Amino acid sequence: MTSTPVIDVDRLNVRYGDFHAVKDLSFQVGRGEFYALLGTNGAGKTSTLETVEGHRTPTSGTVRVLGQSPSDRAAVRPRMGIMLQESGFSPDLTVKESVRLIGELTRRADRVERVLGVVDLTRKANTKVSQLSGGEKRRLDFATAVYGAPELVFLDEPTTGLDIQSRDALWDAVDRLREGGSTIVLTTHYLEEAQQRADRIGLMHRGSFHREGTVAELTRTLPAVIRFALPPSTPEAPPKARRAGDGTFHVETFALQEDLFTLLRWARDHAVELRDLQAGPTRLDDVFRAIDD
Ligand SMILES: Nc1ncnc2c1ncn2[C@@H]1O[C@H](COP(=O)(O)OP(=O)(O)OP(=O)(O)O)[C@@H](O)[C@H]1O
């Protein structure tokens, strides 16, 4: 990372009384990077993000955001867009009034109509927040991240409750922000979304990083798996295949292409049909499942 990081966390500790929620955590996020902070339930992601966003004071350690202390809200707040799990818009305001309020609070320049268009709420502009569906409320929450295309955008479980079209539209809007140079920090339990998009991932467990790095770095220590079923009449299993409890067969491999080729050749030579054949690279789900308490 050559330029000054957008986020610089150094030996952060967060304690709640006797409970040590975040333990000596250090990480940096570079300008324009897409960083996903992931982890098991209770790992300390929210505690970490609340500190970075300036909502919580660290017990110890230092946090710099855009070169400033996040507690200096007047300096930092206009430069970040934060999509929380619940934004808490007033139920009596209309959608348009709520979006206008985002502009006033963040003091960023934008056009309300443009933002409504990006989050696909133009037709609901005069509807009260209390009358929105769950997915529409979530899209209104997303408006806080989009308004004025901030330099730094936090997305906390952004796609929860969104249908597939809304999810695609949200990620398109995030791509647009990235093209404009915004830095993105995502937290989600939908690991596939992080796997597809994140430049780097910090994977937390019990207050510390279990792993940190690119998807390739996180997954390379675990084998890929080829899965298939065999017809009952098959006299023998292919080499390297292990029978799982559900009767399917697994081949664990660090040489996916080579072992898949060997397996397919074996099937052809033995005139066996491999049923429900699945082969793919190691997924983040597998890395999560391998976390040992
Ligand atoms: N105000 C609080 N007082 C006491 N303990 C707290 C408080 N807030 C959080 N904790 C504890 O700190 C730990 C970390 O919580 P945090 O919300 O940061 O985790 P998380 O990674 O965001 O979890 P999840 O994925 O379940 O949302 C948890 O064990 C939680 O019970």
UniProtKB/TrEMBL annotation:
Chain ranges passing through the membrane: none
Keywords: Antibiotic resistance, ATP-binding, Nucleotide-binding, Transport
InterPro entries linked: AAA+_ATPase, ABC_transporter-like_ATP-bd, ABC_transporter-like_CS, ABC_transporter_ATP-binding, P-loop_NTPase
GO MF annotations, alphabetized: ATP binding
Keyword Iron attached: no
ABC transporter domain span: 7-231
Keyword Transport attached: yes
Subcellular location: Cell membrane
Membrane topology field: Peripheral membrane protein
Listed Pfam families: ABC_tran
Highest taxon above the source species: Bacteria
Family: Belongs to the ABC transporter superfamily.
Protein name as annotated: ABC transporter ATP-binding protein
Organism of this sequence: Saccharothrix xinjiangensis
